[in-house]
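Thread title: Can someone regenerate the structure for this chain?

I was given the following input by a collaborator and told the matching structure tokens would be attached. They weren't. Posting the sequence so someone can regenerate them.
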Amino acid sequence: MKIFYDSTIFSRQTFGGISRYIVELINHLPDDVEPILGLRASDNIYLPSLKHPRRHVTLRGIPDHKHLARIINHRFDARIMKRGDYDVMHPTDYNTYLTGRNRKPYVVTVHDLILEKTHRPSQPRHRNMLVMEQCVKGADAIIAISESTKRDVMEIYGIDERKITVVHHGYTPASAIASSPLPHLGPYILYVGERNLYKNFATLIKAFAILAPRYPDLKLVCTGRPLTKDERTEIAAAGLTGRVVQQMFGTDQMHSLYANAECFVLPSLMEGFGMPILEAFAANCPVALSNTSCMPEIAGSAGAYFNPTEPEDMAATIERVLTDTAYRTELTSTAAQKLKEYSWEKTACQTANVYRTLCNA
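Best answer:
Regenerated them for you:
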């Protein structure tokens, strides 16, 4: 059984969750599944870790190198589709240019529909939303990465649930990831990732402002991009100047960052899956998180939950994790067992079953 994975995500992403997902999926496919890739140009950091690396060049340093990579890769993708020597296409990202030229069954993975869920009806729909909808509705089968995402696909696009299979992401064990030392940070709670509106960072700031006077040495450490001017103003207004620390951390530092945190907090209003939950579990770091969207599905009884719209409830949950030793132990012990439910081998096996269903249809 031959599966064609197009170049789209590898032309777009240097790093990111979707391209890492595709690489891990390909690396763990059963022996009867042969992956076919057409890409020739990419600076994606995960491609060298492919079990059978695909020869490609990086165009970094050339003006508009991602656009040039997309043009080059599309030519090779088009050749593969023209030959038709594959059984199923699995687009790596939403791309109507390629799915419109494909003549074989295709399966698309829906990671989330946050663009749709945060869209204001008074505003015109973004082109990316239209492309996503067309690709998903045109697919012969759909993989949703959580039951929550499956419900969103059914509700927003009106797609029959029989067409959708839930396949959770796997997790790369920490033993497979090199670790670098951290700078001295003191005691801290940890926030990881972007700080878009749906990530609900502003409410976390309010919750931390409730905790900060009672724990004068505690900091809130944030990874990702620098704090914006508005965020710095908000932090200062809350009396938290110097208590909220933003810093860039390398991939090889993340496991240590989780492991040394007092707890990890995920205050999002919605997520597609929530990979940081598993990263925290693996580092024996207790997790406090929202009781909405996919979070209870992924974390189960290994999470300490709060209402993400109520700073007081968020602060109270975090404080219990900080102070209740027996509760912390219970959370991390349960998390170690919960983590066993997630593996890339399981993800790849379940995905291969979707491919087989399309081949036998």
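The longest helix spans residues 65-83.
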